[in-house]
Design brief:
Helices cover 26% and strands 30% of the residues. The chain has 145 residues and is of the alpha+beta class. It has a domain of 95 residues: PDZ domain (Pdz3 Domain, Roll), CATH 2.30.42. Strands 1, 2, 3, 4, 5 and 6 form a six-stranded antiparallel β-sheet that branches. The protein is elongated, with a radius of gyration of 27 Å. It is found in: Mitochondrion outer membrane.
């Protein structure tokens, strides 16, 4: 464990139906407006309350959108990406990359309900031994006249 923060990257297909306020999210990025250093991808900057994306619940701020209706979003200007979303139609399929933060390394403290790190066998073996001694003593005591 080295204390370094890593990311677990997953991809998901999300189908949204355009609502009265569009798809319900804003984007940043593009070849002319890099949101992430050395990455011209398109990212979700904001989920609009009660919009299609918020009601669906899977798309999150910070997600990278890889494609819209099968069309790759690589190497697009920001405005070209916006136009692609606007012209995507009523039912829109998004290929999305989620990045979940994973901590590798020592943990300063444990929260309530988290395991204490004591192996189960370390607890069960003494409990089992005490149970056996108690059962043996009980049986021996019952055998006396």
């Amino acid at each position: 464990m080295n204390g370094r923060v890593d990311y677990l990257v997953t991809e998901e297909e999300i189908n949204l139906t355009r609502g009265p306020s569009g798809l319900g999210f804003n984007i940043v990025g593009g070849t002319d407006q890099q949101h992430v250093s050395n990455d011209s991808g398109i990212y979700v900057s904001r989920i609009k309350e009660n919009g299609a994306a918020a009601l669906d619940g899977r798309l999150q701020e910070g997600d990278k959108i890889l494609s819209v209706n099968g069309q790759d979003l690589k190497n697009l200007l920001h405005q070209d990406a916006v136009d692609l979303f606007r012209n995507a139609g009523y039912a829109v399929s998004l290929r999305v990359q989620h990045r979940l933060q994973v901590q590798n390394g020592p943990i300063g403290h444990r929260g309530e309900g988290e395991p204490s790190g004591i192996p189960v066998a370390l607890v069960l073996v003494p409990v089992f031994a005490l149970t056996m001694v108690a059962a043996w003593a009980f049986m021996r005591y019952r055998q006396r006249p």
